[in-house]
Amino acid sequence: MTGKTHAGIGIVTYIGLCDKLPGKFSYIGIVVVGIASLLPDADHPKGILNKYILPFKNKATKVAVYVGMGLITLLLDHFCFNKPIVKVLGFILIMIGFSSHREGITHSIVGMVLFTLIASYLGKMYGIHQITYYFLIGYGMHLICDMFTKRGVPIFYPFKNKKYKTPVNFSTGSKVGIIVEEIIMMVGLMYVIYRLPFILF
């Protein structure tokens, strides 16, 4: 699926569930869910987040930038922080650098758990205690949605490299895929228009 569809589905899901979450509706929640919905595609040089991170949208640049950020994070941890969560972030960045799209940790349950732990740690630092819920919604919906595509996802990586997909699926960018995503976005928009007045007023 495209990045905008992932973000849209994540935000629509959050709006549908927010009244059942601690803290109810939050604009911070929408932002966090949106970012978390895009984060698994950090392993793709042309992913939406990488448009703002990578100076050149190719694999070599992705490897150099992410491995560089990972090594800097590990050095900072060694000399300044000495915290396990910072070490985890450093190693994840390095793994993203070497991962091909949908071949590594970002499209797995392990990746979701590790990124959510980092987000939770940051949330506690800044008093956003509901961030765990926001992050799980965005990241989890990305993985579920990608299971509806022909490529599937290595959901149990690094324990299994097998990619899992639903029996009914489509190719991203195909005519059918584009139509399906457009329908999803239109239905999602109509639901948001219907739902927001009950949340805000």
Q: How would you sum up this structure, described in words?
A:
The longest helix has 26 residues, at 175-200. The model has no long low-confidence stretch (mean pLDDT 94). The chain is built from 7 helices and no strands. It has one domain (3-44, 101-200). The chain has helices at 3-17, 27-38, 59-81, 84-98, 109-125, 131-146, 175-200. It has 201 residues and is an all-alpha fold.
Question: How are the secondary structure elements laid out?
Answer:
Elements: H1 3-17, H2 27-38, H3 59-81, H4 84-98, H5 109-125, H6 131-146, H7 175-200
Helix pairs in contact: 1-2, 1-6, 1-7, 2-6, 3-4, 4-5, 5-6
What is the percent of helical residues?
A: 55-70%
Overall structural class, as computed from helix and strand content, comes to: mainly alpha
Please mark out the parts with pLDDT under 50 across 5 or more consecutive residues, or reply none: none
Shape by Cα distribution: globular
On the 0 to 100 scale, the average pLDDT is 94
* Overall tally of structural domains: 1
Number of E-state strands: 0
Rg is 17 Å
Major pleated sheet: none
Instruction: Note the gap between the termini.
Output: 33 Å
Beta-strand percentage?
under 5%
How many individual helices?
7
Order of helices and strands: HHHHHHH
